Amino acid sequence: MTTDGIEAVFLTTHNWGKAAKFFQALGFNLEFETDHNSGQLRSGDGPYLFIAEVPASETPEAHVVLKVPDADAFRPEAIVDVMTPFQDTHWGTREMTVRDPDGRIWRLQAPAKAHK
Question: Which single residue of 30, 45, 52, 103 has CA 20 to 30 Å from 23?
Fold first, then answer.
């Protein structure tokens, strides 16, 4: 199984309010806001934008998140450098990180496991 396109762009910021207003000025609509200075925005049917505020001591970053339909069925090729295998996140998905040949870190996101 392979990835299924871009799921999201994940950004960190030093000021959630200013960042949200910036992207809203560019045509993004706020889908939801959390109570810890983060939220999700979207423009059209494309990938969503998730922005999370971090302390001033951290450098703001941007990550492209690739969609994986089923984490249990995903088997990356041997040339893929897996940094962290799929793990449950506190926001209800499963996430894996891989490193490309130039050293960039990519996030892969899959739905959470269904609990039976």
Answer: 103
